[in-house]
Every structure is written in structure tokens, then in C-alpha cells.
Predict the structure.
Amino acid sequence: MSRKKLAPARTRDLERSRKEILEAAFLEIFTRGFQGVSIDDIVGKTSLTKGAFYHHFSTKLELGYALVEEVIQPMILERWIRPLEAYKNPLVGILKQMEKLIGECDPAHLKLGCPLNNLVQEMAPVDKGFKTRLQHALLLWISETDGHLKRAKADGLIHSDVNTRQLATFIVMAHEGFYGLLKGVGEPAVFAALLGSLKRYFATLTV
Amino acid sequence: MSRKKLAPARTRDLERSRKEILEAAFLEIFTRGFQGVSIDDIVGKTSLTKGAFYHHFSTKLELGYALVEEVIQPMILERWIRPLEAYKNPLVGILKQMEKLIGECDPAHLKLGCPLNNLVQEMAPVDKGFKTRLQHALLLWISETDGHLKRAKADGLIHSDVNTRQLATFIVMAHEGFYGLLKGVGEPAVFAALLGSLKRYFATLTV
DNA sequence: CAGATTACATACTGACTGGTATGTTGTCAA
DNA sequence: TTGACAACATACCAGTCAGTATGTAATCTG
């Protein structure tokens, strides 16, 4: 039928296998932590075996690095930066996205926290390779947020005396803090309290 | 000399040994995570052995529980709640304590984060016993903060339309978020940005 | 089509892990 | 003083871990 150039239907596909491993690793590490997950756990959630794993990643740490660079960092941009393009006022967009991605999130999923924050807390002080990659992702997040805030400031939507970089840092901190506290305190009511406070803060920054 | 009732100078002291283990465990787990530290690591930092460890704690998890209840939770109260008693306006006290305990902290020590937050992020979704104890510590922190805020509101220092419980939740979130972000981004300049934003927020709440 | 190479699968290893079994010695009550 | 027990120390175990050695079949290249 359709076995031309696209859809090769091969039994061996380097790219696809790598993605399969990364996806399984993401879920396992997301729920149980990097140090709490074994390579056998990961390949067990896969149609592949350990041999395949070490064909793709020279070590467990290398897998972790790839996870940050190829899965988590793009996910951050896709979930928290891209959507802001649709808003004239990014502060409105940030609150809306929080409501959508955190407030309406399944509590069972929410108690797992934020994939980026989880790795930061667990691995940043333990391994330098993790540290630099996680730091890069966080700074990128801050910079991209800052970009949108600068635009809003130029449009006269944010008070002229607001330091946008400083505000962007605070906003990223709030994301991590939201996830972190919600992870510790089960009650979803906490989210309403946090969002309410942030909303009040944002109101004082708006012209 | 002084071998009366106090200072027994015994070679075997249940309380002291337990404290020694807890203290060593705290430092090791603080730097490398609960799952990243072995019991042999802990007793290695001690004048005792594995036999002593299992005489005091039936399992590694039990040690973790004791750590939260007997070391970390009291530490939170001592560092973040007690000092507020000296301030008429607790919002001023909170900023001052942050400057003192975070801003003036040795960066090498700061990159390890907050002991409570570390355990929340690593262990809350993994083990239920951890979850409940960590949740209890966080809610206590929020409640105690709320108490001080209520007092300030009654004194007319905080606007009457402020929901103090909501604000207390936000403040605890900010503590965790500060530590978390500083852990990920090495630069101490980030602290200034975060504190600046929080200061601006607090100013809008004050009468 | 043939040989080379890639993309895996299988089986294994030494180091480490949480936990146990058992021995030993301080401490204290009678 | 003397047993009894508490507070450890030592040696060990079965399971797990990251990583390796080696075999094999699919795919590509010429």
C-alpha cells in the first residue's frame, strides 16, 4: 500500500527508538525521580532492551542530559512561552495559562510537580552536567518571558518603572513555587490562594 | 570534677547517639538527596556503626520521617517564624529574614536549597509517609505565618481587604520558590531580583 | 546479491544497597 | 557483686544497580 519513501515501516528505526526511550524515561523519572529510576525500569516500559539503551546513550547521565535538552526545555517553551504570543498583555496570558495548565490539571498528575523543577531540585547540586543544562533552560525561560514583558511595557500596558527582567525572574520563580507547594500540599484550594495573590500583584503593575 | 547527674560522660548514650545519626543524616541527605544517600554513607560520617543505626531506626524511611519531624520542622519554625515575634510588621520581618538567611548566605551552601523543599520535591510523590509529614510541616508554616499576618491586620498595618491565609500561602510559596530558583540558577543577582519584586508587592499591601 | 555495518538482543559482572543475624560490652538495678 | 538487659559492633546476605561482552539479524552500500 504505502511503503514508499515516507512510512518506511522498518523494524529498526534509530530516531523512533530514541524517542521511545526518551518518552518512557521522561514518564518514569517524572514520577519517581532520576535517582529513583533504574535503566531496567525504563527499558521495561519500552519495546526495546538494555542493549538498545546503551546503543543510544553512553551512560544514565547522558540520558538525563538529553531529557533536559530535547524533551523538557522544548516543553517549557511550548507550554509557557508560545501561548503568550496570542495575548496583547502577557500578564493576562500568564494567568490564563496557569489556570489552564495548573488549575485545570488532573490532581493525580499535579502532585508530580513540574518536570524541570523536579530535576533542578534533585540533580542540580549533585551533578555539574545537569546543573549547567538546567540553568540554561531556566535562564532561557526567564529571557523569553522578559521579551514578552518588554513588549508590553513598550505598548504602555505595564508601568514604566517596572524592571521587566526582575519581574520575569519573579514569574518563573512563581511557576516553580506553585508547582512545588502544590506538590507538598495536596489540596487544590491552595492553587486558588496562590493565583489570587499573583493576580493581585499583577494588577498593581498594570497601567 | 563534673560527673554528677549532668554530663554523665558515658560511652553509651541513647539520646546523644540518636542525635549524632540525625545530624549526619541531615547533612548528607541535604546535599545529595534521600535516595542518593546510603545508610553506610550516613554511619560513615558518624562515630557509630550500622548496628547502632538499626538500633535507633527500624528502616531508612523511618529515619527520613524522624528527620522531617525532629530536625527540619523545628528548624523552619526557628528560622522563619520565631524571628517574626520581634517585628510589629511581620512583612518587614519576613523581608529582613530573607535578606539575612538567604541573601547573606554562603553561595556554596545556598546552592543546596532548602532542606524542607528538597524533600518535598523528591519524596512527596514517592512515599506516603513522607507526604503526610511534609504536608504537615508546610501547613504549619503557613498557619504560623497567617497568625502573624492576622495580628498585623488587626493592628491596621495591612489593608483590610487582604486575605491573610491566602497571603501566607503565597509567602511560603515564595520561600520555596526563592530557594528553588537560586538552586537552579547560580547567580546571587537573582536573589536581588526576587526580593525586589516581593518588596514591591508587600508595599502594595501596606496601609 | 554480498559484504559491511548498524541497530539492536541476551547474558553477564562487580560494586553497592537495605536489611539481618549474631556477638560483645557498657550500664544499672537488686 | 552479679546477672540482665540495653546499646551498640561485626559479619554477612540476597537483591539491585549501572555498565559490558558478545551474539545476531536487519538494513545499507557497492
User: Anything to note?
Assistant: Chain A has ten helices and no strands.
